[in-house]
């Protein structure tokens, strides 16, 4: 009996959890805040570059010293982009 009374609340909570990111970063928000869109693009570019760098390092194409310098730079780029995204949240 208690289960059936709590079921609508559970469904509402799940729906909110799924829909919130879609509302939060709606295309209208991107149009009114171009710096948010640019920050998301920069974050994606930095994360892709980190993945490629990690692959190259594991395959032996990048030396350890070069890897450490490059990974630090890319992580800082991604962190700066995430700070900008969080500022608009």
Explain what you see.
This protein has 89 residues and is an all-alpha fold. Helix content is 88%, strand content 0%. The protein contains 4 helices and no strands. It starts with a helix and ends with a helix.
Distance between the termini: 39 Å
Shape field = elongated
Low-confidence stretches: none
Number of strands: 0
Q: Rg to the nearest angstrom?
A: 20 Å
Summarize the biggest pleated sheet: none
User: What is the succession of H and E elements?
Assistant: HHHH
Mean pLDDT: 82
Instruction: Give the % helix.
Output: over 70%
From the helix content, strand content and strand pairing, which structural class follows?
Answer: mainly alpha
Q: What share of the residues does DSSP label as strand, in percent?
A: under 5%
Helix segment tally: 4
In short:
This protein has 4 helices and no strands. With 89 residues, the chain is mainly α.
Q: Helices and strands in order, then pairings?
A:
Blueprint lengths: L1 H23 L2 H6 L1 H25 L5 H24 L2
Helix pairs in contact: 3-4
Features:
89 residues; mainly alpha; 88% helix
């Amino acid at each position: 009996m208690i289960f059936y009374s709590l079921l609508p609340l559970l469904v509402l909570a799940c729906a909110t959890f799924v829909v919130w990111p879609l509302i939060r970063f709606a295309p209208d928000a991107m149009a009114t805040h171009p710096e948010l869109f640019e920050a998301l693009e920069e974050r994606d570019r930095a994360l892709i570059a980190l993945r490629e760098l990690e692959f190259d390092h594991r395959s032996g194409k990048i030396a350890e010293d070069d890897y450490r310098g490059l990974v630090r730079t890319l992580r800082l780029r991604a962190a700066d982009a995430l700070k900008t995204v969080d500022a608009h949240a």
